[in-house]
Amino acid sequence: MTDIDWRHLPALTTLRAFEATARMKGYSAAARTLNVTPAAIAQQVRKLEVEVGAALVQREGRGLVLTEAGRHLGLSLREAFALISSGVAEAQRMQEDHGVRVSTTHYFVNSVILPNLSDFWSQNPKTQVSFVPDGNQSPIDLDNFDIAIRGFRKGATWEGYDAQSLLETPAIICAAPSLLSGGKPDLYTLPWVAEHGFKEAELHEFARRAGFNPETMRIVDPGDARYEMEAALMGFGLMLTTEVIVRKHLKDGTLVWVDTPLDETVVYQAICRKGTKAKPVRTLLDWLKVLCAPLSYDGRPS
CB of 145 within 8 A of CB of 207? Predict the structure, then answer.
């Protein structure tokens, strides 16, 4: 294929104006198609005639007709623009077929996204979305995912990425009522359920701030992050988590917010590559922001 010499091609605006004129057989109809004035269309056509070095239209009665050169160029432009339109549509279709791949945490997708995902698909039935619960401590992998959702302590930044805040929620300690029954228990003797969503150093820091001694804490590790919630619900130990993840359980009483002085806010962020994003990715990001905005909460246990 011969390389195109862009330096000697008329401007795209000019070519569009003439193609519309040739197709619609007049300046006024072309102007309505392109949402400009007839005078602007006529000016672009005259400009193109100068660049081509030939008359492309001529007056006939009260209308316009194409010259032989105009008919030939009009047909060529129509075919070229149709090919461009087809190529753009195919690129969009390929992206839609590819879908949106999201790396997130097991509890965020279960607590926040999945209960509302039918709403997204009812609005965007052709957009395929897949979620992989990598875990909060997994590396950000934007080679294999379009979006990574993670919870970070407020103030964390991501240099080189586009990080959009979804919601803010307190870090809390909670427990099953059965663990706290039988009179007022000595919190500092109770076991903890392992929390893989926080780094060990963060868990120890939060424990100290709540008055616990990390050196003497007893940790119950169910072996997988997916089972931590079940272990807490069964009364195996205290659980460090975020309020939004256990909001349903706090409301129905299957978990209790243990009032300890953590005073820490976690921000869930959607992390993407910088630059232009595919339409399905933008659509999902916009939906996530609308979904999560009312879920932010900075309150304390009642």
Answer: no
For tokens 């316009």, the residue is 64
Backbone angles phi, psi at 47, to 5 degrees: -60, -40
Q: Where are the alpha helices (DSSP H) in 99-195?
A: 106-108, 117-123
Structure-token pair, residue 97: 């077929």
Q: How many Cα neighbours within 13 Å face the side chain of 164?
A: 18
pLDDT digits (tens, 9 = 90+) for 70-112: 999 999 999 999 999 998 888 777 666 668 999 999 899 999 9
Quick: pLDDT tens for 194-251.
Answer: 887 777 788 888 888 888 888 888 888 888 877 899 999 999 999 989 999 999 999 9
Is residue 80 within 8 Å of residue 44, measured between CB atoms?
no
DSSP strand pairing (192-193 vs 219-220): parallel
Residue 302 lies in a domain: no
In a domain, 181, yes or no: yes
Residues 129 and 251 in one domain: yes
Same domain, 202 and 62: no
> Which domain range does residue 162 map to?
100-295
Reduce the DSSP state of residue 263 to 3 states and report it: coil
Please tell me the distance from the alpha carbon of residue 96 to that of residue 74, in angstroms, as a whole number.
33
Those residues with Cβ within 8 angstroms of residue 196's Cβ, 6 or more apart along the chain or in another chain: 135, 136, 137, 225, 228
Domain CATH code at residue 202: 3.40.190.290
Q: How is residue 168 written in tokens?
A: 């803010």
- Do residues 66 and 161 both lie within one domain? no
Q: Identify which of 146-160, 242-256, 257-271 has the greatest average pLDDT.
A: 242-256
**Global model pTM greater than 0.85:** no
